[in-house]
Each structure stands twice: as C-alpha cells, then as structure tokens.
Fold each of these.
Amino acid sequence: MTPPIYWAMLVGMAIMLMGQGLPVKTQGNSQSDKNIMDNITVRQGETVFLRCTQGEIVTHTAWLNRSSILYAGDEKWSVDPRVSLVTLNQEEFTIKIENVEMTDEGQYVCAVQTSRRPTTNIVYVHVQVPPKIINLSRDIVVNEGANVTILCQANGKPEPSVSWKLISSSGDLTTNDEYLEISSITRQRAGAYECTAVNDIDTDTQTVDITVNYAPTVSEGRDIGVALGQRGVLECEADAVPEADFEWYKGDRRFTNGFEGMEIVNTGSLSKLTFFNMSDGDYGNYTCVAVNKLGSSNTTFLLYVQDGNGFTLGVHLNIYLLFIVFLPFLLKF
C-alpha cells in the first residue's frame, strides 16, 4: 500500500474517531497507533497550544477538529484567523488557537504519517467560561404589602451558582436561588438587591432596585413660643414614598404662598411655615397635612406668645403667684 493511501486512510480514521467522540483502542498488530494526550483546560478568551510530538521521520502530518482539517503540514485549511501554525519539524507539530471560544471545546486529533506507520494523537480541550448574568429583572416600584418576585439567571462553565442579598440590610435577607420572593414587602425591604453569579473562574454581579411606596407618616408637632415682632418658624417633617405634598391650616383656613408676612418652603421631606413679623393674629393652633397618592397624615402645632426674655405670660403669672405664697414665710427670716 503506497504512502498516500496510508495517509488518506489515516485522515479518514482520525475523522471517524472525531465523530465517535472517544478514541478506539488499538487491536493487536494494527498498522496505526493511537495515543491519548493529556486533556487541556483553558479559559474563554485565552490562547491554547496544541502540541504533537512526532519523533520519527515524518512524511505527512495534520491537525483535525471534529470533521475538519485545521492544518495539513504547513498548509492551513481552516479559515479561522485565530488558528495559526507555531512549530513544524521532525520533533514537534504545534498550532495555537487564540481568543478561545466555547465552540472550540471538543476533541482534537493530530494525525501523523511516518516512514514506518501512521499514528494519531488525541487531546480534548475543555473551555471554562466565567459567569455572566444574562437575564435580570428590571427595577420595580410596588406598594407596601405587595408580593414581589425578582429573577436572576446566569450562564458559565462550570455552571455558576446564583444568590441574592439586600445591600442596605445587615444581610438577614438572602437566598441562594435564581428567584427571590418577598411576601408582603415593607418599606424596610426597599433598596438595592444584588445578584451574584459565581463559578470557579470568576464572579459577576448586578443589582435590581425595588422602590416601595407607602403613605405619609408625620413627625409629632413641636409647640413653640415667639415674641411679638419676631420671626416664627413651624417645621413639619413627613416620611413618605413618593414624597408628600404639604398643606398648612389654621382652623379651616389654608395657607399658601402669597399671604403677606409669611412663607411656605418645601424641601423634600420637610416643610417650613415662616412668619417674618409675629402679630397678635398669628398666634394659635396650626395643622400640617402631608399627602401622597397612598394616603395622608397630619400633626398640630401651638404657636404661643413669648416675651422678649424668653418667658411666656403664663410663666410670669406662675412666678408672681409663687412669690405671693412664699412672701410671709420669707418675712419671718
């Protein structure tokens, strides 16, 4: 049998082995030797070198992947620009594949025709892929008390594990699952939820923001005393999502900007009602109402008269009465 026929049979056998996915054991006095080289593990994006030791006078040689020839001697058959020849001599036949992709994983065969017999060397390339989150729930807005489910899916090789945690929490809300389910969500569970996908190669993280809407809660009003002619300020603070709108009342009368001698300034969760020059008609009880689309809350303030020394008329009267009561006792001394 002529060498070219030997070579054609060798390549055909190599292709057959590739199709089977596993090497076939050599039987007795076979005219072809099949050697299994060490498996190679490479990360996606790296470069892999496929080396074939020859060691005899070689007449033909080729590297194959699946049913296609990558290189036949120094002639490139593959159209992939990532594949190139590194070394070709009597001792070694090496090619490299740059920027390895998942599709490069599989069995490779080095087919060699020497002066004595054909041989095939088989290696399996394993490609490891860092985790990548491919499907993530969008940021969501819900009302307090709603049931919430968010999803995080990732791929990679080895298959990554997926976990969730609430970043703004102390870590008491976590789960090792693609799905995170929260029953009757509260305002304390609002915030950024971090999805982490991990395998032996790397880690990928992304976040989902959950906004929880709830009705306003107004802080208790603090009564203040202001002297006539002085500046008086009432402050009303409300906790609410979305932020509350504020309304100010004295009795049934609602105050708005434009009233002479006063001003209302709203900044986020705080509203200030300011009187620039307190008059007799400005004293009394005031109500602050905070409103959003989920409800309302209110609190009351007492704006009372205080003299220039920081005492109210009531305090002066109490001091006078105490003086009258204790004066006879003091006179004895």
Note: The CA atoms of residues 230 and 277 lie 5 Å apart.
Amino acid sequence: MARDYDLVILGGGTGGYVAAIRASQLGLRTAIVESEKLGGTCLHKGCIPSKAMLRSAEIFRQTKNAGSYGIETAVPEVNFGKVQHRKTDIVQTLHKGVQSLMKKGKIDVFQGFGRILGPSIFSPTAGTISVEMSNGEENEMLIPKNVIIATGSRPKSLPGIEVDGKTVMTSEDALCMETLPESILIVGGGVIGIEWASMLADFGVKVTVIEYIDRILPSEDKEIANEMMRLLGKKGIKIATGARLLPETLHREDGIKVQADISGEKQTFEADRMLVSIGREANISNIGLENTDIEIGPQGAIDVNGFYQTKESHIYAIGDVIGGLQLAHVASHEGIVAVEHITGNHPDQIDYTYISSCIYSHPEAASVGLTEEQALEKGLEYKTGKMSFKANGKALVYGESDGFVKIISDKKTNDILGIHMIGPHVTDMISEAGLAKVLDATPWEIGGTIHPHPTLSEVIGEAALAVDGMQIHG
C-alpha cells in the first residue's frame, strides 16, 4: 500500500526523531522509518548506556576513596550484573519517552529497513521509500514530498582484525559485556577510547591504550590532551602513542596477544580482551543512494550544502551520515535546520565553532571554538588565560582539584576564539562558554560576570581575567 507524506525520515536516532518532532510542530505529515529501535545509537548503543556505566564506575571509585573524606566503609565490590541492569533500565525509560513523543506528535513510525527508489510509477523523481517491514508483512511504499536521511554511523573496523564481539570488541559490543575482564587493550585514543579506558580503570581493570598518532584526543587542544594523558597515567592506565598495530601478529588463544611498531621497534601487548575504537563510518550501504544523484564525499559521507540538501534538492541528510562533528546534539540541530528549510522558515546555517563537545572520562573534558593549534594555523594573533582548579575552593572541597580552564581570545578584537576545560564537572560547565561564544563575548565580559562562591564555575571567570593578567587567585 502506498502512503503520502510531506516528510519521511530514514532513521529514528536522535537527529531523526528530533527532526520529526519539529516537522510535526510545523504541520508536516511525517513518518520515520527505523530498522531497530527509536533513539538510535545514542540511546541504545552509545551516549546513554556508556554514561550510565561511567556513573557506576564513578560511584565505585568514590566509594573506594571515601576514607579520605572521613567516611569509613567496608571494602566495596562491583556487581557488574547490577551495573548492566541499571544501564538497561535507564535506556528503556528513555526509549518509552521517545515512543510517547512520536504518539504526541502524531508521527507514523514504520519498523523496518527503508530504501530510496528512483523515479517510478509512484513518483517522477527519486525519493519514494520502500520499507521492508520487520514483521515480515508486505513492503510499505511511502511517497514523500521530502526525505531526510538520518541513518547514522557504525564503528569502523581495523583491516586485518576480525571483531568477534567477545574477545575483540567494538564499543557497542563492550556495552553488552556480562563480566569485566582483568585486563583490556584499547586500540584508539580518541574520545570513545578514552572514555572506555577511564571507565574500565575505575572498575579495576588493567587498561592499556595504543594510539597510532603521537597523541591522544587529536581533536582537543594539545594542553588538554597532555593533561588528560598525565591524569590517566595517575590512574594506572598505560598509553602508547605513535604505535602502529600489526594485525598479522594477533593471537587470540587465552586472551589477546599482539605487536605494535613503535618508532621502528616491535612491542608486544597482552590482555584478556581488545576494544577497537578507531572512529565511526557513515551508514550509507544498501539504502538506495545509487538510485539518486546524491554524491558521496572522499570520507565516505553524504555531501550536503549548508541547509543539508543533497544533490537531490528534496532529499536532505543530517547527523553522522554526513560526517563532520558526530555528536547527538549536532545531529538534532542539523535536523531542525533541515526541517525549517523545507518549510521555508529561512533558518540560519549552523556555525560549528559554536558547538560544544564533551568527554565524559575521569577527569572530564569539554571545549568550544578553536584550539590554540587551530588559531595558529589560521594565522590569528591571540592571547590566552589559564586557571587551575587547585586554586578553587569548591574543587578542593569536592576532592577533585586536578585540571584547568583555558581561554583563547583574539589579540586584535578581544573576541573569544575558544574555551577548553579539563577537570571536575566541566561537561556541565561548558554551556556558559558556549553561550559566551555565541554572543561574541570578550574575556572581560566573562570575568566581569559575578560567579557565585564557592562554585567550580569561578575558575571560568578567573581564566577569563587571566587573559589580561587580571586574575585574583592565580
């Protein structure tokens, strides 16, 4: 049976369902096609379950250290089954919430795999969606005026390393572990790899990270990356950078044994399990792109313009499937811009330098805007201010005084170029920095804002004052 819609969205992840809600608010008859569960990777295989487990690891770490706060406890133990059960409960609660939002918005949800058809008896242009229904019923044909592709991404594989989901895992496999290993080798020192390294170390697992380039967290400011590496080392995490894994040396008997080339010398690594975390790639296979004029860029992601239109002007794409910043909040806002463009509401294009990013390890890290290296590459004259959490009363009370806030501003205009943080609760503090960036604030304006005492946020104000050497406590 053929059904007509104003908009059909391929993919019900964060970007897809947020776009659907906005479309419904604007009066579009909307449908989502989702092959798995509403909420997508973020809700079921990424952001939410991993943060739930990170929270359990945090509680375990804090309980072990309770004596330093004058609280005597018995020796704590990890019940990993309960950790997993709590994670599942949180995911299920949020999943029900998303389902309710679809009903509230009168958004039709088709459970199945959608493919884009070319011009046919249904439509003179490409864009009809054939849905192979998960329940085995006859295919549904959806005839939309517009399409948004929001099919997300999947973990990248490492050539020569077969993932079996148990001994060699992706981050998605690791979320389903029934027991904790005694040791693990994490391949990849990006955001996902570092979060897993921190979490597992807090659970008591012996962790080794190997990274191909000469530093971890290559997208972060170098000072932040160096501080993260130092503090992870204090937790007992071993990190090898500039390490090229040699897949042909991998042995899986009684755990993992593999070699890596580090500065021309082979070094052997052994662990119970391996987690491969080298990034993610767009889900563009078998969704019918060959039936359209849509173009794929050199990184394997869909090419779009500033309003997320593909070469087929009525077909849009958002989120991980277009590459760029692969973050849930980015996909959501891309979806909103796409829908508002479809409805002729003339949205502003997203300025990606205004988008905050977060790392939920221990310590946390967060940033918005340019790194110092990027400012140098652009030939900008800049000045910086930095303030340590060691000078902050709330951080000392909290028992977490490692880390700092760093602010980079334009020497000529005084506008803020970037703000970078590492330390306690910085993922909750970064929004002040994000707002400052959006409003083109200067360090003086942040420093002139009276931050309540005692709070961690005082470090932001002090770092802003430090740009011009006016800090009080540093």
Note: The domain at 363-466 is CATH 3.30.390.30 (Enolase-like; domain 1).
